[in-house]
Amino acid sequence: MEQKFCQSCGMPLTEELLGTNADGSKNEDYCIYCYKDGKFLQDCTMDEMIEHCAQFVDEVNKGLPQPITREEYIGQMKMYFPHLKRWRKEMTINEAMPENPALVGVKDLIAKMADTLPVTFISSVDEEGFPCTKAMLSPRVREGIKVFYFTTNTFSLRVAHYKANPKASIYFCDADGFKGMMLRGTMEVLTDAASKEMIWRDGDTQYYPGGVTDPNYCVLKFTATDGRFYSDYYPRSFVIE
Fold first, then answer.
1. What is the C-alpha separation between 149 and 147, in angstroms, rounded?
2. For the segment 187-232, what is each residue's pLDDT rounded down to a tens digit?
3. Helices (H), strands (E): how many in the chain?
4. Fewer C-beta neighbours within 10 Å, C or N terminus of the chain?
5. Which residues contact 94 (CB under 8 A, 6 or more apart)?
6. Alpha-carbon span 56 to 144, nearest angstrom
7. pLDDT score of 88
8. Cβ-based neighbour number of residue 113 at 10 Å
9. Which residues have C-beta within 8 Å of that of residue 228, sequence separation ≥ 6?
10. 189, 130 in Cβ contact below 8 A?
11. Centroid of chain to Cα 65
12. In the beta sheet, which residues pair with residue 131?
């Protein structure tokens, strides 16, 4: 059977360690130390939970071939905890609501990278299931931090990938500031006149000699669902609603 872990503290779950719901039934997601009678036992942030768990590093080391330090354990938890169910909720960016304190500055960072970096890396999935990445001119238009529009060639391999499998990711990289932002989502291929005119710019005829109606000119519309960023030597995952 697949090993399950508490979606709050990361502890391996067994039947005896399952928390309880409000009706007394077993909860399959959380342990008895985090969840009882349908409620969390600790009112804390993800970072506070990590600090709490760090005190048990000696117990963790009993099951490891090579012991780790408390600092190493904290670093591992900071990379792992954002993927747990309880903390994924904390890491949600909702553009219609005030900024989440746990993600201060992330929306601004995404917007700044999209608007100022000359190159964006986009990835598609090929017919054999392999990821394929390509450098592109950065998005021409964006709608907040959720929707981004790119120009590309209708007859390109990338377009063929997206038509067969819309799963995609885009990546912004600030090499000087040692910052990276990856967004996952889906990519649509748009060929309607309104979309093509929306992002057309003077000088685009060097890429598409036939102008805005050039059959080899189309629009890629990327819609983000979630992402992960790296800044100040610290990675964070988040969901976009």
1. 7
2. 999 999 999 999 999 999 999 999 999 999 999 999 999 888 876 6
3. 7, 13
4. N
5. 100, 241
6. 42
7. 73
8. 21
9. 82, 181, 182, 235, 236, 237, 238
10. no
11. 32
12. 125
